[in-house]
Write a structure and sequence with these properties.
alpha/beta, 8 strands, 43% helix, disordered N terminus, EC 2.8.2.-
């Protein structure tokens, strides 16, 4: 269906809140759970690029940077379609209503090479073929406090996700890993460990905010692309938060009007480091830090919560 037609239809469609089913301790939506068999058998190709993140850790931003690099800074080419369709969201599935139907798996299978695919899956649930084909993977991690705040607001505005409850309740769920895609702690640690064995470029959201040029150059090097200074500056400009926030091909305003309510909270909300300070009470912060220390005691992974 043409995008504009889909827009008109989807704005009238409302969806029930997503329901959660656990698989090996990882909460997933029912549609994702029902495609796990197919997901496991997914055939990755050697030239696939996988962009992996915990939800709300700078995924769309990274996708846009990667696409700009692959298209040699050609803005028009990068606006050929929405992020959601340029880079199949591997495990995401909306079986109905028909106006909103989406299958990341089907989209990826039908796509010509080279493909760039997105996932929020923890490392242990990634289809084995990605490891067998030795695919390149870019993983982006964001500090837990800002990630939690962003994820909370995303739940508030996205009806495809479970009801978040109060800030207090959602924080509790996040700390115990009872949120979609599971424990943040396990997610970032699992991928951190995997980078020693596989072709994984592990990036930090905070570094990307502090020095985007340097991180874009890292991605270029990883993708074996050599672009001149002028193109690099173009990519820097077009992937800035301000420009992306206004880009309908990246800000999720072009699809899902019945699912995402940007009046509750925009999909691209602040893109800041340290926003957690506006939400955590002193007591919550102490509780979170204590829990965090325990769960992160077995890793060399270090995050910055402010710049």
């Amino acid at each position: 269906m043409a995008l504009d037609k889909m827009e008109n239809v989807s704005s009238k469609v409302t969806v029930p809140r997503g329901e959660i089913v656990e698989f090996e301790g990882v909460p997933l939506t029912k549609p994702i759970y029902s495609t796990l068999d197919r997901l496991c058998k997914f055939k990755a190709r050697p030239d696939d690029l996988l962009i992996a993140t915990y939800a709300k850790a700078g995924t769309t931003w990274t996708q846009e940077i990667v696409d700009m690099i692959q298209q040699n800074g050609d803005v028009e080419k990068c606006r050929r379609d929405t992020t959601y369709r340029r880079h199949p969201f591997l495990e995401w599935s909306i079986p109905e209503p028909p106006a909103l139907r989406y299958s990341g798996l089907e989209l990826a299978e039908a796509m010509p090479s080279p493909r760039t695919i997105k996932t929020h899956l923890p490392v242990q649930l990634v289809p084995p073929s990605f490891w067998e084909q030795n695919c390149k993977i870019i993983y982006v991690a964001r500090n837990a406090k800002d990630n939690l705040v962003s994820y909370y607001h995303f739940h508030r505005m996205n009806k495809g996700l479970p009801e978040p409850g109060t800030w207090e309740e959602f924080m509790e769920k996040f700390m115990t890993g009872k949120v979609l895609w599971g424990s943040w702690h396990d997610h970032v640690k699992g991928w951190w460990k995997a980078k020693n064995k596989h072709r994984i470029l592990y990036l930090f959201y905070e570094d990307m905010k502090e020095n985007p040029k340097k991180e874009i150059q890292k991605i270029m090097k990883f993708l074996e692309k050599d672009l001149n200074q002028e193109v690099l500056n173009k990519i820097l400009h077009n992937t800035s938060f301000e420009v992306m926030k206004e880009n309908p091909m990246a800000n999720y305003t072009k699809e899902f009007q019945g699912v995402m309510d940007h009046s509750v909270s925009p999909f691209m909300r602040k893109g800041a480091v340290g926003d957690w300070k506006n939400y955590f009470t002193v007591a919550q912060n102490e509780k979170f830090d204590e829990d965090y220390k325990k769960k992160m005691s077995d890793t060399s992974l270090v995050f910055r919560t402010e710049l």
